[in-house]
Amino acid sequence: MKTALSAAVIAVSLLAFAPGVFAQGETAVPFLLIAPNARAGGMGETGTGLADDGSAVFWNPGGLAFLRGDKISLTHAPWLPEFSSDLSYDFLSYTHYLDGWDGSLGASVTFFNLGTFVHTSSIAPDPNNPNSNVLGTWHAYEIAVTVGYGTQVSDGLGLGANFRYIRSELAPFGTEQEVGSGIANDVSFDLGLLYRPHVFNIPLLGDLGDRLGLGVDLSNLGPSLYYIDQAQADPLPTNLRVGLALHVLKSQYNNMYLTLDLSRTLVRVNTDSTIGSINPNAQGGPDTTWNYTNEVDPLPKSLITTWGDGSGLKRIIISAGAEYWYGSPRLIALRMGYYKENPNFGGRNFLTFGAGIRYDIYGFDFSYISTFDQNNPLSNQLRFSLSLNLGGTNEL
Q1: 221, 299 in Cβ contact below 8 A?
Q2: How confident is the model at residue 391 (pLDDT cuts 50, 70, 90)?
């Protein structure tokens, strides 16, 4: 029986527009790297040094240490609209401040809808009935459930960690004679640090205390994921991000932030292919079966060996953003950003724009991607986010 599992895999590969994955095409569940909120999406997909809202559970769990009150955030994005696909991305997060612990709990659910696929047999369809070989349909999706906690380990220094359960359901069966299904489960964890000093003197710039955020996030640390054959396991998209956020304009009615993120996926995979068998097919010609084996450097070894793969610093992705707020309290936001990837490792190069509005405890944000080249799958990509801020101030 021939199935459309490969179609689901192709759909997953379309997710590879998440940071560092498209350039490599060698990790599982790349949806874990998609920027989850419209605010960060409008700022060049940056947030590691800011992490001052409910999305901190994604960008940097160290930011949970500085949140107060309760935060709820919901994001929806029709994914890759240039393909007219039925893919979509949804993200829901919740954070809660624990008064006696001087820190916050965070939780999130990320759902990636891969669409509906047709299951067909290897028998050619009847010319009078094109659907005669259709056996049914199935729905493919991927989901991740994350819980985390962050607290201040010293004055101005937040430390956080996440634990995550991952489920990838590409198809309820295997391909050809494979026994099993295209369904896999895995776990991972993240570590994050965020430094927001109260005093930070820099020559010529003066004191940047309470206006500077420096963050480091190491995400998706966990065992490789496989569906049927463990020898073909793919590593999770372990990713390192270093971020800076600076509150450059700080007044009653006008506030402006500048952000900068540097990121790199830390995986090292060597793929080896060999011929498993050669048999005549229905037309009498050769029908070759290939065996594929992935040699994945395990953690923590891959955190070091990935830097020696010959690419040097070329795989580092640079993203920068700016955000302007007007109002007291903050009412309207305008955002823009820039995202740059090496041409030899993905080559994504685009501008982002966004806006937001706040009223009382409610917030609404949207972001838009503008690419430099025509027919880019990321063109016209939109994200929409709703948020609730139930007490507490968190802004840098």
Answers
A1: yes
A2: confident
Question: What contacts 315, CB < 8 A, 6 or more positions away?
Answer: 20, 23, 24, 264, 265, 342, 345
What is the rounded CA–CA span in Å between residue 342 and residue 316? 8
**Would the pTM of this model clear 0.90, i.e. be above it?**
no
Neighbours of 226 (CB within 10 A): 16
List of domains in the chain: 5-124+134-390 (2.40.160.40)
pLDDT tens, 234-285? 899 999 999 999 999 999 999 999 999 999 999 887 655 555 555 555 555 5
Q: List, in sequence order, every beta strand (DSSP E) within 208-266.
A: 212-221, 239-250, 254-265
Phi and psi at 16, nearest 5°, equal -70, 15
HEC letters along 375-394: CCCCCCCEEEEEEEEECCCC
Q: What is the 3-state secondary structure (H, E, C) of 97-131?
A: EEHHHCEEEEEEEEEEEEEEEEEECCCCCECCECC
Structure token pair of residue 254: 């006008």
Which positions ≥6 away from 274 have C-beta within 8 Å? 290, 291, 293
Distance of CA 395 to the CA centre of its chain: 23
Cβ(323)–Cβ(333) below 8 Å: yes
What's the length of the chain?
A: 396
User: For residue 271, how far is the Cα from the chain centroid?
Assistant: 24
